[in-house]
Amino acid sequence: MPRQLVECVPNFSEGRNTATIDAIVQAVLSVPDVVLLDRESDADHNRSVLTFAGPPAAVAEAAVRSVAEAVERIDLTRHQGAHPRIGAADVVPFIPIEGVGMEDCVRLAEGVASEIWTRLRVPVYLYESAARLPHRINLENIRRGQFETLLREMGTVPERAPDCGEAVCHPTAGATVVGARKFLIAYNVNLGTADVSIARKIARTIRFSSGGFRFVKAMGLLLASRNLAQVSTNLTDFEQTPMHVVFEAVRREAEHYGVPVVGSEIVGLIPRRSLEMSADYLLRFENFRPGLVLENRIEEELAARGTLAGFLETLASTATAGTTASAAAAAMAAALGAGVARLTGQDAQPFEADRRFFTAAADRSAAAISTQALERTATLSTRLNRLEAPADSGSNLEIARALAAAALNGVREVK
Fold first, then answer.
1. 312 pLDDT above the threshold of 70
2. What pTM value is reported for the model?
């Protein structure tokens, strides 16, 4: 079966509290087979954006867990930031990467929406390709008035009824918007002025809804920490309207107001093709690095998963690392035992069966150690102690026995 990969880029209404953001990240990392590709937080926007990818089911579960953490920790009644929002977990889009289509992501979005309501009692709107109503294709229509207006209108204004769940706005977490879409580039251009009205005029000129470029959404914001106005854009089809076209349009409009462009920034990851299309233009990225390119990060993470370095990184960052290490030690002991058995003409099949069993346990990040695992580790240790080896294989057998003993101790600790 060909590999299936889905990307998820959830936006959370917290960009200042590191402990909250870390907890949301850990919720994502708690799901096996999901790789975190990027995390970005902005104190002025008071917003964080995560990017993770993996098999569809795993990505869906990671999305639900991250939303649950946000709902528990973020109180929108106390939230202030430059970026509009209606939810603690504001928007959760799914993007097809490899081996899946947009319809697959729509079904994924619908399933996640149902889980968010069922588990967390947070109402959900569906947008972009998952939208059930034409006016909900565009996210800005759903976010009209932000959380404060939604809190008043949901349940009384029929148009604000959610697509999933009852028309009861969560008192502190608001509502969540879930959907399926193509690659979106979040690209911001910073102006050499604190006059936010100029940024808003430029945004109105370039965005499609006001007669500007197709596939461009834009708004003007103030970056209070830097005393700069910003034209914040979303490019919903970068192949039709590339980044350099938007940059040049903002620069020209800013010149009309006697204001320079002082830089631009990418939020999240971008497809490699988008850079190739803009290679001849000076975008003045303030934060560019190769790791921001989506395909580069996916390739790096998937390659690392198959290396010793990747395995050790997992041990260093996983709460159940001891369990994983115990399973890996047992798998190595079984592999060495199989090798010795073959060299001496003995039956290697029991060792091979154990190797497959414990390898699978380690690959699952050793989800709950079972009584069967404890019994198999003890049996493996006994079998190794009974195995006889010639002098030239004696060290392999001794190492196998030591690994099995360590694995047995580890499994007992977990139990």
1. yes
2. 0.68
